[in-house]
């Protein structure tokens, strides 16, 4: 019980920090969006092909500088949140002792006719959830594993993460667009659109 309470304290700190960061981020993003829309409305009233006056140039520069500063602060707070979350994992390791022998005293236990199919299913699901679909298909075929769930939410997110790591935001952007109503207060869609726009511009350049 004491171990659970020790982990719970670190978990409460991480949760509290996450909620505070989420609220502040949403407030700042709403403010930035309002400023951008205001500036866009002002610009829409300008005659076509007209140049910015000195005051408008100052406003635009101030807005860009403010946006750059805010993004830097968000990134810093996000890194600090990661450190807080990692402390939860360390707290778990510190308060609990991993004793896998109580789960499977003998390796031979996995080779029984009853347990082997379960183990093979677990391996196949792990491969698919890690986005290793080709490896999963080969394993399922060679081990003659029964039907395996391939479309779980975790597997989809892993594939999106793998595509982002390869520089392709399209799958993640498609995922976010299909959940727009759930992410209306999240900065994720804006970030993905930004990455997508930058990628398109790089191709044009």
UniProtKB/TrEMBL annotation:
InterPro entries: Fyv10_fam, LisH. It comes from the Eukaryota. This is LisH domain-containing protein. It comes from Iphiclides podalirius.
